[in-house]
Amino acid sequence: MVKARCTWCGTDPLYVRYHDSEWGIPCREPLALFELLMVEGMQAGLSWITVLRKRANMHAAFEGFSPERLAIWKKRDIDRALRNPGIIRHRGKIEAVVANARAHLDMQASEPDFFWSFVDGAPLQNRWQHHTQIPAKTPQAEAMSKALKRRGFKFVGPTICYAFMQAGGLVNDHLTSCFRHATAGRAKRRLVL
Predict the structure, then answer these.
(1) Chain mean position to CA 3
(2) Catalytic positions, please?
């Protein structure tokens, strides 16, 4: 029997695996949330499938997206990353990952539940029947974006923040016809690399 899925994932096996095992499934692990936000920022202006195909390389190149390791990166580390053909080579985005690591460390110390505070600690349950109903941003994403920017984060506009909220399961934007809609909040999240 074929499972009904959200239409955006198509039939590409990598996309389908990401949809089924990660997208929209709540993530509460701070390091995983940081990585997800950084990857969403790297996606700006590109297709998500491009990011998925490079994600394992980015995970390795950015030292597992460890904020502690990234926070001490110097110009030579950024230059090394820019020579890596396996990742998205955009100086502004790479510099943003480093700056965001520093900002994340400061934020995590005082606000460990920062991201989930925008949805009162529980995933928002949407009931979209068609992909055209799903917004590109919401008031919560706009508030998150402003709060992140005040803390020194870069590449965190409201559209990126909403995509992050969708991917991290802070909102359930699986279509009601998708097999994941009813189970996203109870599913076990598995990283697709």
Answers:
(1) 25
(2) 18, 40, 48
